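User: Let's play a game. I give you a shape written as tokens, and you guess the letters that built it. Ready? Here's round one.
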């Protein structure tokens, strides 16, 4: 069949992450605490998901109040950080109080994702080292262990006189008295040196090499989230949304190992304002 009879293929455009989230949030259950299962942004944007205590549950009421106070304080602190920073204060222009709170919560959530990624990366590196060194390291440890056992056994034999030396019973008794503490210490040491690594343990360590994949780049999705917040919620243009995302990224993400991105804050050489890195992330993301 020729291509003439086929309809032209339509390439899907960028997916509006926040619109999709708004549709999904309507069907979600209320959180059981301010810590899980939802993050700061979900609880800031969707009040119906915030936890509520059962009737006459005094302890639950206190926990909910405490959680909300902590969350409100944290949102306020990050809103203030955005406002104080010379490059990000502009990101709050035109936003009402609820939108400012949501932006602060979204930034907190993104930074938490970076911290989680760093933790996972450390665990992944640990498992790779564990897998790579399991067999040769264990082999060397076993050799050294056996050498240590022999040395301790010699100490125990010498401390107890081992039935050797002069036949004089009083001399033998004196040697045993002098060596009693060493004999007991050697016996304890020999018990502790009963260490054995089984083939199954080595095989398990080696299996950890690819057990946990390196986490995806959190910065890509983080830019998608911030972009659609400005574009969908705040009704800004796409170009202006890209610039605000770039400003926030450069100001707050670099402490978590994320590099700066270039952006155009003014009209330059026939190019409008915007950020190529953010633009690319938006067009690559698919839910």
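Assistant: Ready! My guess for every position:
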């Amino acid at each position: 069949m020729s291509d003439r009879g086929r309809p032209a293929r339509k390439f899907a455009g960028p997916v509006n992450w926040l619109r999709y989230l708004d549709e999904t949030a309507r069907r979600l259950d209320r959180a059981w605490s301010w810590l899980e299962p939802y993050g700061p942004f979900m609880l800031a944007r969707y009040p119906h998901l915030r936890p509520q205590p059962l009737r006459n549950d005094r302890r639950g009421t206190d926990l909910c109040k405490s959680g909300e106070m902590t969350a409100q304080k944290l949102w306020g602190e990050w809103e203030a950080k955005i406002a104080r920073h010379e490059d990000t204060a502009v990101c709050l222009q035109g936003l009402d109080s609820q939108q400012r709170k949501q932006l602060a919560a979204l930034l907190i959530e993104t930074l938490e994702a970076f911290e989680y990624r760093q933790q996972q990366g450390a665990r992944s590196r640990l498992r790779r080292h564990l897998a790579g060194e399991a067999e040769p390291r264990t082999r060397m440890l076993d050799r050294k262990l056996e050498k240590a056992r022999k040395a301790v056994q010699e100490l125990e034999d010498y401390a107890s006189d081992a039935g050797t030396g002069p036949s004089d019973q009083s001399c033998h008794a004196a040697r045993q008295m002098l060596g009693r503490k060493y004999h007991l210490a050697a016996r304890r040491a020999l018990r502790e040196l009963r260490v054995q690594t089984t083939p199954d343990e080595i095989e398990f360590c080696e299996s950890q090499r690819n057990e946990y994949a390196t986490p995806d780049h959190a910065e890509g999705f983080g830019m998608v989230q911030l972009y659609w917040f400005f574009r969908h919620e705040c009704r800004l243009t796409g170009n202006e949304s890209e610039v605000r995302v770039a400003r926030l990224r450069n100001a707050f993400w670099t402490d978590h190992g994320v590099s700066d991105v270039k952006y155009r804050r003014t009209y330059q050489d026939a190019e409008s304002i915007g950020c190529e890195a953010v633009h690319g992330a938006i067009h690559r993301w698919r839910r």
